């Protein structure tokens, strides 16, 4: 039995907590770190809208560090290396959706102090999710098992964020609704951070598959809204940023070998000059053989579901990729545990047991 703490109980965190309570005989939820005063002291069962479970949330990070636990599920809106170092040094492993996808290519100063914390606490840290995560890590590696030669890998993500209820991430962090000329790979602390994790993911594929990349570049084109929108009560004004086309390219001798491109809109105005892959994620490998796969998650392909439930399915996928990794992360050698160094993450109880 692994004792786990939820750090961040937003859209992704609540899916993890619900899964632990409903379907995991190997995981026990022993605490949660929250940020808002309204949630401080709340019972975790009640936070999920169910019967109390006798475990309370706290805004006190020190109280969390003092708890006896095997792993912290780290899913705050804004990730901090300091938090993770403190958790690791306290002897708890960390599994996160927020960052640490390919720590070898993190800023050296951060990488070194995370490693020192892992050594101090004999603990390990793993970052994954949907993208960055499975679709830009596990899936391309799995497909490469059928390759004789790879010339290039491209992952395109096409998504409209209007349906994504984490408006703190959409507007505060990703700066949708801000002036178009204020969007750049280093123009705010968060945009720089966000760009760095996708750059890391390009490095991850390049390093894991022997691409010998010289550099990874980051570019973004921001596009203005044609009209006003209302997104979960948050106004998006005409003329402000409603589209962001990001591209992170891993180059060898000037040629693109690995690319992640995101085609993100809010308000569903799709720029006419952008490429038009299907909604979701399209992974294309040019080589011998060339391969392409398209991924989309829904609440169901057979029964009718509300849009909100379909949207939630991506949070479930993000959350489960990391939750299902907890046993492997707890058993890993101290240090960085990546999608290339951990065994294949799968849910061996996905079908549930006979009642
Ligand atoms: N890898 C992937 O594929 C993937 C996909 C989706 C999301 N993510 C990442 O996963 C994380 C969680 O996403 P989410 O959609 O669950 O986010 P979210 O719903 O917006 O928020 C998560 C939590 O952040 C907390 N928070 C509030 N103020 C904060 C602050 N100043 N600093 C840090 N946290 C604060 C909130 O706490 P309270 O509830 O107490 O207010 C909330 O529970 C994010 O880092 C996101 O970027 C990764």
Automatic annotation (TrEMBL):
- The 2,4-diaminopentanoate dehydrogenase C-terminal domain is annotated at 141-345
State the Pfam families in the record.
DAP_DH_C
What domain of life does the native source organism fall in?
Answer: Bacteria
Protein name, UniProt field: Uncharacterized dihydrodipicolinate reductase-like protein
Q: Which organism is it from?
A: Mycolicibacterium gilvum (strain DSM 45189 / LMG 24558 / Spyr1)
């Amino acid at each position: 039995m692994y004792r786990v703490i939820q750090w961040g109980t937003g859209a992704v965190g609540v899916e993890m907590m619900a899964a632990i309570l409903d379907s995991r005989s190997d995981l026990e939820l022993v605490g949660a770190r929250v940020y808002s005063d309204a949630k401080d002291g709340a019972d975790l069962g009640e936070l999920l809208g169910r019967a109390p479970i006798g475990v309370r949330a706290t805004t006190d990070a020190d109280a969390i560090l003092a708890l006896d636990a095997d792993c912290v599920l780290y899913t705050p809106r804004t990730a901090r290396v300091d938090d993770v170092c403190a958790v690791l040094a306290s002897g708890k492993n960390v599994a996160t959706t927020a960052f640490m996808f390919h720590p070898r290519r993190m800023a050296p100063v951060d990488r070194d102090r995370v490693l020192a914390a892992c050594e101090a606490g004999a603990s390990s840290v793993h970052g994954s999710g949907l993208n960055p995560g499975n679709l830009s890590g596990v899936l391309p590696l799995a497909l490469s098992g059928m390759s004789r030669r790879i010339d290039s890998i491209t992952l395109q993500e096409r998504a409209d964020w209007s349906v994504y209820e984490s408006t703190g991430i959409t507007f505060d962090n990703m700066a949708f609704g801000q002036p178009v000329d204020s969007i750049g790979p280093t123009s705010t602390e968060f945009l720089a951070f966000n760009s760095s994790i996708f750059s890391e993911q390009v490095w991850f594929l390049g390093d894991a598959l022997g691409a010998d990349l010289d550099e990874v570049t980051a570019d973004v084109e921001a596009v203005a809204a044609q009209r006003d929108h209302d997104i979960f009560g948050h106004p998006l004004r005409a003329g402000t940023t409603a589209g962001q086309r990001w591209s992170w390219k891993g180059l060898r001798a000037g040629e693109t070998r690995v690319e992640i491109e995101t085609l993100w809109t809010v308000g569903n105005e799709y720029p006419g000059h952008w490429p038009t892959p299907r909604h979701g994620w399209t992974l294309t490998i040019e080589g011998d053989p060339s391969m392409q796969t398209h991924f989309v998650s829904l609440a169901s392909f057979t029964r009718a579901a509300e849009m909100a439930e379909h949207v939630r399915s991506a949070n479930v996928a993000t959350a489960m990729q990391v939750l299902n990794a907890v046993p492997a992360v707890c058993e890993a050698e101290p240090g960085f545990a990546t999608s290339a160094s951990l065994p294949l993450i799968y849910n061996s109880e996905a079908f549930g047991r006979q009642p």
